[in-house]
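ingest -> validate -> predict -> emit
validate: passed (alphabet ok, no gaps, 250 aa)
predict: started
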Amino acid sequence: MISFEVGMTQLGGHAIYYDIGTSPIGKVESIEDTARTISRYCAVVVARLFSHEAIENIAENPSIPVINALTDFSHLCQILLDFLTIREKKGECLKGLKIAFLGDGNNNVTHSLIYGCSVVGMNLTVACPKDAMPQKHVIGKDVKITNDAAEAAKDADIIYTDSWMSYHVPKELEKKRIEMFEPYQVNKNILALTKKDAIFMNCLPARRGYEQISEVIDGPKSVVFDQPENRIHMQKAIVLKLLDKISNKR
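emit:
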């Protein structure tokens, strides 16, 4: 949420951080009523929540734009800034590029990558364990699912990974998940299978020695810290677009 606050400040606006952990949302007051109240104060709502259902409820009620900053199901803002980063590194045309995602297939980044790649025409291969597949209703005809990390990485233009311990995963499952996802770690052997000009991405936070090794995240193919820089630019664009400050004509 820091990026949205910084972005709003750069645009000349003002951001208010509202901690739902100490608020009456869902306890004393319904999410719907809270959304209606906020819409009387603000021009736009940015919600970062665990429950995807909760953000859908919020979006149904206020008279102002609602931006999904993250849920347990999707992370759409992340994918938009990722595509901006890929465009910077690979050129304007994203169609036909191969992106390989390694790790947890049943998470918000994977689901949003599947949706996003189908829109821009990128070829997505998800390599994940059988017990961590993307949700069935998300998988389309344009995505390939495999249990073989090497198969996914071969000739990839972009290789992407995400945390093995997403926000909703209990700490007691950490050991089991490390064992499950270890074969999908992005290391030198995996990176060697990609194209010579391939780039490495992680939406952060990243744990060195787990989903990727330090030599990868700090290596010449890594654009991991270009991604959060572009987060500010993309999220400013989203806000302006929703507030009709950007013309559809170019």
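The chain has two domains: 2-71, 77-224.
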